């Protein structure tokens, strides 16, 4: 639009003033505002309104789209933060475990090194004490030898004095104070020196013995500490091995369960109509493959067996071992029938086209004579009920035999 149109249009200034008054809450709005707007401005105003409405709609849609994108991005950011937190937690746990293992290894190595160093120091100190004790013992032996030599010299001197003197033998001097003053002084000096040396040697020996006892006690304490440390290390090793075994077992169980789950997911097969085909039991597959005449005959035998069992439960009085034997026989016959059904199913799968056509003809023949066969069986059963005078267990055994022979009928027809 041309701006000069608005500047040269009469009433445009009034329109602006009216707009200002409308926006001013203190002034009363003019009710009839369209009467002052020129007619040629109305299309432009409508066009502006339409443009503003379209732009507003576009902006609203863009804002909604931006809100949706922001919401999606926020969800993605939250998921990423959760995954990052989990990964950081896993990394922190792994790092802590690794640091713990390294700290345990360092502590173990430092403890062993410290124990070995202290043990070596104690052993070297003990060896030093042993060397000092050996030297002291050698000095003590030398002093003893000197003492023995002095005693020997004293005895020789006393013997010489006795030989040179006069008078009887009992007048010989036997004490040091009976000697001359000079000799008495020398002997007392030697005895004082010997006593001092012996005292020093005994003190040194006592000191060495005390040091040896303290060293032995410390060595025993260190050995006990080493044994305790070894037991702790052994316990920690066993606990670690046990935990590793548990982790290995859990890993194997998880792997096995995952494999079984995958196998279970892969097992269900879909049929042609789209539904899952469920595995059939042996009896269902057998009932689907046998002719209709046999199915009806088996149903009739089953109904008769149930009737006989109900009558037998009310009238027959048997011993417990008889009931157990009959149950064993029934289970045995049922297992034989199942095996034969499986064999027949496998045989049907390997049959040729001619054999299949022959079997189909037999089925049709059975369908044709089915009604008459059932009428004959019902007539025989009704006559048997009226004229048969037998015990209930005899009737049950005969029905069992008939049912068992019915399972073998398809083999006889095959032959």
Automatic annotation (TrEMBL):
Region: Disordered, residue numbers: 108-129, 266-288
Biased composition of type Polar residues is found at 112-122, 268-283
Could you tell me the superkingdom of the organism this chain comes from?
Eukaryota
Q: Which UniProt keywords apply?
A: Coiled coil
- Which regions form coiled coils? 49-97
Protein name, UniProt field: Uncharacterized protein
What is the scientific name of the source organism?
Knipowitschia caucasica
Organism classification, top ranks? Answer: Eukaryota, Metazoa, Chordata, Craniata, Vertebrata
């Amino acid at each position: 639009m041309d701006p000069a149109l608005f500047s040269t249009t009469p009433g445009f200034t009034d329109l602006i003033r009216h707009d200002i008054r409308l926006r001013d809450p203190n002034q009363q709005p003019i009710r009839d505002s369209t009467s002052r707007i020129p007619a040629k401005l109305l299309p432009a105003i409508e066009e502006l309104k339409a443009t503003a409405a379209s732009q507003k709609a576009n902006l609203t849609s863009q804002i909604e789209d931006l809100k949706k994108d922001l919401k999606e991005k926020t969800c993605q950011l939250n998921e990423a933060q959760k995954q990052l937190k989990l990964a950081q937690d896993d990394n922190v746990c792994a790092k802590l475990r690794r640091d713990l293992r390294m700290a345990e290894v360092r502590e173990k190595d430092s403890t062993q090194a410290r124990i070995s160093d202290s043990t070596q120091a104690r052993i070297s100190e003990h060896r030093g004490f042993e060397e000092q004790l050996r030297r002291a013992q050698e000095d003590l032996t030398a002093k003893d030898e000197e003492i023995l030599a002095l005693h020997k010299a004293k005895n020789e001197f006393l013997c010489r004095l006795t030989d040179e003197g006069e008078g009887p033998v009992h007048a010989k001097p036997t004490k040091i104070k009976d000697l001359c003053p000079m000799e008495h002084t020398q002997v007392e000096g030697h005895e004082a020196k010997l006593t001092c040396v012996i005292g020093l040697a005994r003190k040194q020996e006592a000191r060495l013995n005390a040091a040896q006892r303290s060293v032995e006690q410390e060595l025993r304490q260190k050995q006990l500490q080493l044994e305790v440390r070894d037991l702790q290390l052994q316990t920690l090793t066993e606990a670690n091995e046990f935990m590793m075994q548990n982790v290995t077992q859990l890993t194997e169980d998880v792997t096995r369960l995952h494999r079984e789950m995958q196998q279970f997911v892969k097992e269900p097969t879909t049929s042609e109509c789209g539904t899952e085909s469920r595995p059939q039991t042996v009896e269902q597959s057998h009932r689907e493959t046998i002719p209709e005449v046999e199915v009806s005959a088996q149903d009739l035998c089953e109904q008769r067996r149930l009737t006989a069992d109900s009558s037998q439960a009310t009238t027959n009085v048997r011993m417990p071992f008889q009931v157990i034997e009959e149950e064993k026989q029934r289970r045995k016959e049922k297992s034989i029938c199942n095996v034969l059904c499986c064999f027949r199913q496998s045989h049907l799968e390997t049959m040729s086209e001619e054999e299949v056509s022959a079997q189909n003809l037999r089925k049709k023949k059975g369908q044709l004579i089915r009604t008459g066969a059932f009428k004959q069986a019902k007539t025989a059963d009704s006559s048997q009920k009226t004229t048969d005078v037998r015990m209930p267990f005899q009737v049950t055994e005969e029905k069992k035999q008939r049912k068992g022979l019915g399972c073998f009928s398809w083999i006889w027809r095959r032959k």
